Amino acid sequence: MSNALLDALLLQSGYNATLVAIGAALLGVAGGSGGTFLFLRKRALVSDAVAHATLPGVGIAFIIMVLLGGDGRNLVGLLLGSAISASIGLLLVEWIARRTRLAEDAAIGAVLSVFFGFGIVLLTVIQTMSSGRQAGLESFLLGSTAGMLFQDAVVIAIGGALSVVAVFLLRRPMTLVAFDAEFAAASGVPVRLIDLAMMGLVMAVTVIGLKLVGLILVVAMLIIPPVTARFWTERTDRVIWIAGTIGGVSGYLGAALSASAPKLPTGPIIVLVCFALFVLSLLLAPNRGVLAAIVRHLRFQRRVHLRQGLLALAHQEQIFDPLTLRVLRRNRLIRGDRVATDRGRALAARTLRDEKRWQVAREIHSDETVSGRYDGLTPIETVLTRDEIAEIDRIIGGPSVAR
Amino acid sequence: MGAEFVQLSLTPLLIGTLAAIACALPGNFLILRRQALIGDAISHVVLPGIVVAFLVTGVISTWPMMLGAAGAAVVSVILIEAIKRLGRIEPGAAMGVTFTSLFAAGVLLLEQSDTSSVHLDVEHALYGNLESLIWLAADGWASLVDPLALADLPPELTRMAVVTAMIAFLTLIFWRPLKLSTFDEGFAATIGIPTAVLSFALVVTAAVAAVAAFDAVGSIIVIAMFICPPAAARLMTNRLEIQVVWSVAFAVLSAVAGYVLAGYGPLWLGADDAVSAAGMIATVSGLILGLACLFAPHRSRIGAPRDAT
């Protein structure tokens, strides 16, 4: 690890860099936890529309500020403008999806492209304006910390902290609505209001994130952490906190990384750190991860081959399948010359008996509860009681011995 | 409509119109299949494709870049599908993860290599350069039959014309299977239509349209034309055939009206400079969709309760 990176991680590379790292971490926490509600309501891409819809607001705010005599680069003013136009875009998405027969994805796409297009028109208008310094406006598209002023960093840090507090205060009703809107309504939660609050939160994160990561990449801060968190748990409340942590770690690590070397733009680095965490989770998570699934599959395959091998031994059939032979040999059930060991013979007899018991059991209990659990692997003792098995044994006739 | 129009406005107008049609045609099917945002995803991942193509070949030329962009688009479609299947994640979120990450990688690559100095900047990719696709050799309508002048047509025009013709042709040939599998995938599969292949081919066709249009007119038009004209057309009729016709009409109207407004609108208002044509075309398509949402005959869901949530 290089010294510059260590310095940045330990918040030693200057006051501004420190503030940016803290701001990015807070933004990540707010984005991750706030985005969770969107993700659980299956509306992840609404954030895309919100982010694109901020552009005309930025443009109009700039024009108004210049017409009022300023230089048009006041961050609070620009954020206010972007918040207003993002809200309008959000309401339009809702309105189109509710009032027309167009699906929500079409509504999202329409709003994002039209608002963005109109924003570009305004940007070209601004370029031809004689007064005002428009130089900083392009950075809203991609985000830039290079040109970040001290008060910009303060605005981001404070805004991020406020969003985190809002998530914390609203977590219970929002979880309820995200998880089961109808149940929430029945238990007296004002669903519509909570939905609006959720959208307000998303909008706040988007607007605050604009300066740091840019309007296209802020979407990543809202979508990737919840998706990543979902791999690690089945519980909604935990998804929120894990997502918040993942977002926070990506923000902090990304900001530190980009501060440690030139030519490492903050926004993309934060997003790529987040994506790396996503890929790791996709591969390594217990239960839902790819690796876990592969292991589960291999284990299942072994068990099937072991069972079939034992049955073949019991029937004194020749075994040819290499995997079956390997499984049997590794469990010391057969010797190198494919002759069954004592243990192998005993286990084979027991397996054969289990299979016979199952046969009878499936004839007697044709209902789903018993025969539905037959998969050729489950021992019958785990399904039937001892008395029931004794009854079956009476039909088969006496405990058989290994042949 | 004199010589100046032919020289300065005719070719960009034609290119914009062709691009709009090329995107609107597959857009009709994407909207019905709830894949409307695939255009958005593709137009974001085109960036890393172009940057990689530049880094590999070291030159700014059209074909490597179009190949790079198309390659990136296909990679992203495969990635989205892989994340959806492997992680059991809903399509919207899988798409969001993929396109934001690839876009971030593209921006990082762009910053790392000094490509920004050789006119490969993000703004160019976003706005396109429709206004600059002029036909210098032309000096009046007579140039249309003058082989010498025709040889100097912007290459984007020929490319866009070929791509648009190809997409129209494909739409015609595969009309029946496309329509069937869009409305009833199960039925289409039972009568032997390879729905998975068809669905992938549709997305690839959309990607080709997006990349070709992206090269000429920028990504905003691409996203807007994939969605707005077909969405507005969907509110006009219940029949797919008529919907496609409406969507092409809306696309042409957006392109022409948007270009004219961008070029001459500011002059009418007393300003000196034109505004972004790409942005204005997207804006006009949005206005058309807005009108359709308010007044189109088939705007509401049939049988849906008035206050559906």
Provide a descriptive summary of the structure in words.
The complex is a heterodimer of chains A (403) and B (309). Chain A is elongated. With 403 residues, chain A is mostly helical. Chain A contains 17 helices and no strands. The model of chain A has no long low-confidence stretch (mean pLDDT 84). By secondary structure, chain B is an all-alpha fold. Chain B has a domain at 2-213. Chain B contains 13 helices and no strands. Chain B is globular, with a radius of gyration of 20 Å. The chains are: A mainly alpha (403), B mainly alpha (309). At the A-B interface, α4, α5, α10 and α12 of A face α2, α3, α4, α5 and α11 of B. Chain B: This is Metal ABC transporter permease. Chain B: It is found in: Cell membrane. Chain B: Belongs to the ABC-3 integral membrane protein family. Chain B: The chain crosses the membrane at residues 6-25, 37-56, 157-175, 187-210, 216-237, 244-262, 274-296.
SSE series of chain B:
HHHHHHHHHHHHH
- Unreliable spans of chain B are 305-309
* CATH homologous superfamily placement of the largest domain in chain A: ABC transporter involved in vitamin B12 uptake, BtuC
What is Rg of chain B? 20 Å
Please bin the fraction of helical residues of chain B.
over 70%
- The CA-CA distance between the termini of chain B, in Å, is 51 Å
Query: How helix-rich are the residues of chain A, as a percent range?
Result: over 70%
The CA-CA distance between the termini of chain A, in Å, is 66 Å
Order of helices and strands of chain A: HHHHHHHHHHHHHHHHH
Tell me the overall shape of chain A.
elongated
* Number of helices, where a helix is a run of at least 4 consecutive DSSP H or I residues of chain B: 13
Q: Per DSSP, what share of the residues of chain A sits in E-state strands of 2 or more residues?
A: under 5%
Structural class of chain A: mainly alpha
| Assembly annotation | heterodimer
The assigned structural class of chain B equals mainly alpha
